[in-house]
Every structure is written in structure tokens, then in C-alpha cells.
Amino acid sequence: MPDLASLASSLSGRVTLPDDPAFDAERMPWNLAIDQRPLAVAHPAGVDDLRAILAAARDTGATVAVQPTGHGASGALEGAILTRMGAFDRIEVDAAARTATIGAGVLWGAVIAALEGTGLVAPSGTSRVVSPAGYLLGGGHSWVSRWAGLGAQSLRAAWLLRPDGTHERVDDASDPETMWALRGAGALVGIVTELEVDLHEAPAMAGGMLTFEAVDGPAVLRAVRDAAADAPEGLGLFCSTMRMPDVPMLPEEVRGRSFTTVEVLGRSASDLAPLEAIRTAATPTSERIGPITQAGLAAMSMEPEEPSPGGGSSHALDGLPDDAIDELLEWRARDEQWALVALTLRMLGGVLDAPRRPGFASLAGAAWITHALVPQFPGAPIQPGLASLAGLDALLGPHRSTRMVPTFLGPDETLEQCGSAEEVAHLRHIRDAADPDGVLHEWRLPR
Question: What is the DSSP string of 370-419?
């Protein structure tokens, strides 16, 4: 094992080594089911510390793997110095220019709070505790993607520490090849310390949630599918089938229940017109629709805000024909699928089909993206959840698109699922030129 004791004494920040009692807690990612085993966990205080980490990795034959908040874990990280970017916490909003500069250690919740009252929204995901850096550099799909594009499309420029120690601002004019790679595979070409992103005007958003009985799921999903055919660009729509376990940590009103939800966000209230057809298909048991801010939207998502173990899988789909809907929901209702708590379908299209900036990440041409969740509750076996995910993969396989966004990849999935063979080869060419010594972790490049 490489000796990194000298690195620990040379940083203004800190390094946690395996003999430290805190190491096991610090090495874990957000999904506690993934067992990361790095050589060390580094918490740099600034760019000079990052340079020292790169030098130590080069000297010892280690690699550097940046994981801002623990999200996006993709492997065990043997031989890597796991680097957390929490000290890079600057946020600067220029409302007049509709831009923000965001440090690599910032969380989306802080950005959303900084934008309250401006009438501007950031291309954030559904969770407030995800890092914009990991989200934007991995593609990032959000509520606003049908009219703002993938999160990566909002990336205007980045401050990048290259493997040779050069720290500079890059944009499409100065380094188009690097920017193409940063928009979807950013971890491969350098360490991003700050990002410059577009903000989007949305002063009058409206949205919320409709809840339906589980028996109405097929009718609701068909209505959602049909509404997508001519939905306005300003409409974001998610449809979820929920099957909640009867466990004490859940609220009484949902414990042990199955139901279907339709969650929507309109850039303005007029974008919500397609909801009428969905209400006609089935009567909601509850409805909360009205004016909403980005902060309110983040709260509505009810995303967990503490690390926990679990499994999941995602698929980008070309379409949802009637037979696929019937087969999916019939399979979903079987007793043996109890471990699959949530299955969400997100409507794509809009400007996603015409990216305004070049980038590796793309969902152009795909119609839906799905995400399945199988939490690991204390004392419950994990095999049923894994079997459900495998069954779902087989079920949706015939409808799968050729594109996926890296932020939706599972732990063992690679960038081969996100682009053509030519695009992946081009990405490897850019990486090899940027990092000829291979000091950066290969992340999701196919081995």
C-alpha cells in the first residue's frame, strides 16, 4: 500500500487514513450499500492542497477520485485517494446576467436559497443535498429540463485544475474539447473547483402533486403517456407508482399503501393544461396544485437528506406502448415485487431533443427516463430487491433508448450506455491527452 503519511502532514486541510477511527465513516458514499475502499480520504482546503494530492498520487502510483458529497459512487475505489470538495463553498449570483458561480463543494439547497425572490431558477435536481458539481458534470436531469435542457447544458465555464497542476478558467471559446467532456464526463479531465452556470427566468411557476388509487394506475399512466405527445415545452411531469412497506419509520398515512402520483411543474400556470386529460382518466384522491417556488418544489420531492443503503436502476426509453404499460403494471403488482417501493417515469422531449451546447451527455430522441428504488430496511433481505431490479431490466429492455445520462447510471454501469462507441473513444482520447499519466481515477470509462 502506498505511504501517504507525508501527504497528511503537508496539507492545510486534512487526510484521513485507514488507521484513523473516523476512516470507515468518511470513506462511505451517500448510498451506504456501496462499499468504497480507497487508500485515503482527503479534505483539501484549497487549490494548493489539490496540487499536493495530485503530486502524491503520481509519486505513489495512486489515483485521485473526486466525490463532492458522496453521491455518484461507481465502484470500490481501490488504489484511489478519495477527495471531498467541501471547502470550495463559494456562491455568487449575478441576477442581471442570469448566471451563478458555484463552488464544487456547494449543495443545491444553498443555491436554491440564494435564488429565492429573484425569479430565477437553477437547473437543479430533485434533491437539495446533491452537489451541483457532480450533478452538472454528470449530465443532470431536472424538473426544468424540457425547457432549460440537461444540467450540463447550463454549464457556461469551469475553473479546472488540470493533472499537471495548471488551474484555469475554461469555456467553449478557450477549450471546446474539454468543455464537451465536462458536460457529462467531467471527472475524467481534471478537478473542477468552480462552475459558471446559466440561470433561467421562471417568476411564475406553478405545480404540485395529484394522487390516485393504485387501481387507477394503468389509466393514469396511459393518460400521462398521451399527454406527453403535445405537452408544452414548459411542462415537467413525473409519474410514480408507489408501494410503501408497512414499516414503523414511515408516516401512518402512507405506511403499507400503494398509490400512483403525478407530479408536475409548469414554467407558468398555462403549462399545466394537460392535467385536465389526466383528471378525466381517473379521479384524484388528493390534489395540491398552485403557485410554487424552486424551494417549495425541492421540499415537495421528499428526497432523503441522510445517507442510507439501497438499490436502484434507471432506463431511458424510446416510448411506452399500451402493451408495455399493461405488462409493467401487472408485473409491478405481483406479491414478489414488494421490495420495489417506487418506480418513477419522467417525461423527456422539449429542448432535450435539440441541445444548444456540445456535450457528451444527451437524452436527445428519448421519450422517458425511469428510476426504480429498492430501499434496504433494517433486517430485511436484499435479494428480493435485486431480483425485482433484474426483472424490471428485462421488462423494459425492448423499449430502451440508446442514450442514458451518467448521473442515472448504476454502480457497475459504464459510459458505454451513454454514448456511441465513437463518442466514448473520443472521450478517452481527450482524457489521454489531458492526463497522460492516468493520475485521475477512470470513473465510468469502460475498462
Answer: EEEEEE--TT--SHHHHHHHHHHHHHHGGGB-S---GGG--TT--GGGTS
